[in-house]
């Protein structure tokens, strides 16, 4: 999945929240696997967490 494809399917409110996290430096790591899955380590208000998008 490309970034543009991902942007097209994410609701606007959630996309804006993600942009705020990114612009605020809260995305600690972002990787894409060979099968198109995205993985992110995020610094949140209650500790770090991982996100996986298939």
TrEMBL record:
Q: Which organism is it from?
A: Carboxylicivirga marina
Record protein name field? Uncharacterized protein
Top-rank taxon, per record: Bacteria
**What is the taxonomic lineage of the source species?**
Bacteria, Pseudomonadati, Bacteroidota, Bacteroidia, Marinilabiliales
């Amino acid at each position: 999945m490309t970034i543009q494809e991902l942007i097209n399917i994410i609701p606007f409110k959630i996309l804006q929240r993600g942009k705020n996290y990114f612009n605020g430096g809260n995305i600690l790591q972002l990787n894409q696997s060979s099968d198109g899955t995205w993985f992110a380590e995020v610094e949140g208000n209650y500790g770090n967490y991982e996100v996986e998008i298939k």
